[in-house]
Design a protein that fits this description.
Elements: E1 2-9, E2 14-20, H1 25-36, H2 45-56, E3 57-60, H3 67-71, H4 75-88, E4 93-99, E5 106-112, E6 118-119, E7 127-132, E8 135-140, H5 144-151, H6 159-167, E9 168-169, H7 191-204, E10 207-208, E11 211-215, E12 222-226, H8 241-252, H9 256-260, H10 264-278
Antiparallel strand pairs: 1-2, 2-3, 4-5, 6-10, 7-8, 8-9, 11-12
Helix pairs in contact: 1-2, 2-4, 2-5, 8-10
Length: 280
């Protein structure tokens, strides 16, 4: 099993172990359906991530990866899993182009996602206690469920205020204020409090690299490049799959279910053998 940098809070402890499903054609097909089923637009990203990870994961701490568990993973854990899934699917490297803001020369550079560092969660995760104008209050790290809830709030509600409310842990119940992800205004926090809470949550949270510096080879000017942690959603997962199924079925007369059960590596071996046979 692999390890999450944060972990799923099950009410008493953080579960860190997880496993992806075996990489087969069936998994690729399931992931393609998970992405296209919701449509690609920025407002649906949290739901897409939940859908994709629910299909991709085999288990979290031995438990089935239900959507309830997956959307309650912390945002950094979900970012990490999406990047690891991309690497598993073969999207481990990417080329970027940038026009230098200093000399106007365009330069290209390559990123290997597997080489990017990951910072694990610190002690206390997923909770922090912050001294606010209401005294010491408890908060937890934002989750995918919080991201989904924020998308559904009215236009008149400040998203940062709403997020604080969602992440506030009631002193009476010691549970995050979930109540159907209803945004409560029972406590109002000052801008100073909000900044302290945000800093405390960031300090305890795990993190993956979402920004890198790239230097222009011509003049040396540094540029900050944004790395989308959910870039896998923009990939055409499974596009080649049906061509592969058709090619293998023609040669070996296997049915779709049998071909989808092949690992990606084995499927590529058969395709190579077919290609060699055709070019004799």
């Amino acid at each position: 099993m692999d390890t999450l940098p944060g972990g799923y809070w099950d009410g008493s402890s953080c579960i860190k172990e997880y496993s992806f499903r075996k990489l087969t054609g069936q998994l690729e097909l399931d992931l393609a359906d998970a992405v296209t089923g919701l449509g690609i637009n920025s407002s649906s990203v949290p739901m897409q991530v939940t859908s994709v990870l629910s299909k991709a994961l085999d288990n979290i701490g031995g438990k089935p990866p239900t959507k309830d568990i997956v959307h309650n993973l912390s945002v950094p854990d979900r970012q990490y899993l999406m990047r690891e899934l991309a690497i598993l699917l073969g999207y481990d490297t990417a080329w970027f182009s940038k026009d230098c803001s200093n000399c106007a020369e365009r330069f290209d550079f390559e990123i290997n996602y597997a080489d990017l560092p990951v910072t694990p969660a610190k002690e206390g995760y997923p909770f922090v206690i912050v001294n606010t104008k209401h005294g010491k209050q408890k908060f937890r790290v934002p989750t995918g469920a919080d991201q989904e809830a924020i998308l559904n709030i009215g236009n008149g509600v400040n998203s940062e205020v709403a997020l604080l409310s969602l992440c506030y842990v009631s002193e009476k119940t010691h549970k995050a204020s979930e109540k159907a992800r209803h945004v409560s205004n029972d406590l109002e926090f000052s801008d100073k409090d909000a900044a302290k809470i945000g800093a405390a949550l960031e300090e305890v949270s795990p993190s993956i690299i979402t920004n890198i510096n790239a230097g222009c080879p011509e003049c040396g000017e540094d540029h900050q490049i944004r790395l989308d942690p959910y870039f896998l959603l923009q990939k055409s997962i499974g596009t080649q799959l049906f061509n592969d199924i058709h090619t293998i079925a023609q040669s070996y007369h296997w049915n779709e279910k049998e071909i989808l059960a092949l690992s990606k590596q084995r499927r590529e071996i058969y395709l190579e053998l077919i290609d060699q046979e055709m070019h004799r």
